[in-house]
From TrEMBL:
Any one GO molecular-function label of the UniProt entry: phosphatidylinositol transfer activity
Name under which the protein is recorded: CRAL-TRIO domain-containing protein
Gene3D superfamilies: CRAL-TRIO lipid binding domain
InterPro entries linked to this entry: CRAL-TRIO_dom (IPR001251), CRAL-TRIO_dom_sf (IPR036865), CRAL/TRIO_N_dom (IPR011074), CRAL/TRIO_N_dom_sf (IPR036273), PI_Transfer_CRAL-TRIO (IPR052578)
Record-linked SMART domains: CRAL_TRIO_N, SEC14
Residue intervals of the CRAL-TRIO domain: 136-294
Amino acid sequence: MFGFGRKNTGPVKEWKVDDSKAVVSKTFDQPPTSIEHTPEYEDIEKEEHEEIYNNVLKHFKETDLYPVKEGDCPKSDWKPLNKYEKLWLSKQCLLRYLRACNWKQEEAIKRIIGSIAWRREFGIGGGEWDKITPESVEVENETGKHLVFGFDDEKRPCLHLYNGKRNTKASDRQIQFLIFMLERTIDFMPQGQDKLCLCVDFKKYPESCTEDPKVPPVSLGKSILYILQYHYPERLGRALFINMPTLVNIFLKLCWPFVDPYTKQKCKFDEPFDQFIKPEQLAYNYGGDVNFDYMHDEYWDDFVAKAEKKRAKMMENFEKKGGEIGTSEWDIRDGI
């Protein structure tokens, strides 16, 4: 199958309903992070990298204005950072970009500035730059096609994507919704963890999908890949893909050349989710213990409220530590 995994010839696992054995959930009752070990952020190991990091930190502390959109943006339109952007520019954020740029100082600075501009233009910069709201994308999840639920065995929060539950046609709003859910997944990262686990199931759910689920255009796939690779470096810890039909394999073959080698190493195809996620963190139909039944009216508001509470706590911690660029995410996520 074009090198993306083997064809799944076994029986498709259906939902199992046995309330005596499963933890029943319809709302956003995120399972506890009961993984035994505590992850630690990757730190600076080489002396020369310490100097490069300090130079990058100094640049952003001493720079007052930044572009408000990608590409050609007149300097007269540039704006200062708000407190949400300063929180985003944590120590670990700078290090993620530096590692992605192979510790090339100027390249990392340019890329971070590009991400600040993109986040503002896209509508997720925080404060006055927030345009993508829960209300503006809620319709995209009426069938529960994207869910933040559970943690993998490395304590990464899991973002589940169900292509077979698509309820809208391909559009910019679909990309906005995916990024909205990616940002919420980041909200649920526990202290010490800065990566997520992506779980993608291509099984058809005719009872949920309002149209025949089709493979998205290659142009849309390339746009999403660009956003994830350029503006979310070092965020993917693991990507799991199951129930992949032939069309999806063809689609991945077309998009695969645009995926960087480091990301490719993190992808697993047609390997059961329960090999990487403990039962208490996983839905029953994937071999877990949680009998999760998505009820949009019960789940969505609760999910949004919990994510907003975590972001408020992070801002509180950030301001207590002085509200400076380069604050450690260990301190920012204290008590999250």
